[in-house]
Amino acid sequence: MNILTCEGVSKVYGAGDNRVAALSGIDLTVDRGEFVAITGASGSGKSTLLHILGSVDKPTAGRVTVEGTDLSGLNQTQAAIFRRRKVGLVYQFYNLIPTLTVRKNILMPLTLDKKKPNEAHFEEVVNVLGISDRLEALPNQLSGGQQQRVAIARSLIYRPALLLADEPTGNLDQKNSGEIMDMLKLSNRNLKQTILLITHDEKIALEADRIITIEDGRIVSDERRG
Fold this sequence. Notes:
Elements: E1 2-13, E2 20-31, E3 35-39, H1 46-53, E4 61-66, E5 69-70, H2 76-86, E6 87-90, H3 102-112, H4 119-128, H5 144-156, E7 162-166, H6 174-190, E8 195-199, H7 202-205, E9 210-215, E10 218-224
Parallel strand pairs: 3-8, 3-9, 6-7, 7-8
Antiparallel strand pairs: 1-2, 1-4, 4-5, 9-10
Helix pairs in contact: 3-5, 5-6
């Protein structure tokens, strides 16, 4: 079952001599539960695509649908709410609130909506990510790898349709990078989470079940592994 559909998605910045086509006619579908890596060189358009899929940005042309919602029809406020509830975003930098405990950082999306957490789901997420013993710690008391696990837990707490990870291991050493990839694979397998991972690292991309390569704003290959 398709959870994500892109139809003819293009993104253009500037005009005239300053015109830059970041994306050109992207057609893409992702099924529920897939683990997809989107790879390409710097400037290929992969991060632009991720921002459009996460409703952070809008395409110049084309349409993106996530769980039946056409993102082009959302205003700025609606897009922010959709992003909080339906899209988990994980970046290279963890964006944790330094004055809040791990528990409160993870629950922040629910807190903003004044919703109580599902305790069983919360326990499952923190156990899968191996941070159940750090819930009362502050971010500055954690290693980089632990902080990224907290960021991933926060992105999963709302049971999002998509988890979008933009170079999530880019700020980590090899050991922590491997652990974060293991955690993402566990989330995909145990929590049935659909994941789109942006990376320029071929070794990281090979951890996914499907690898999409972008060059100059176009998909040039789409390989399903296994």
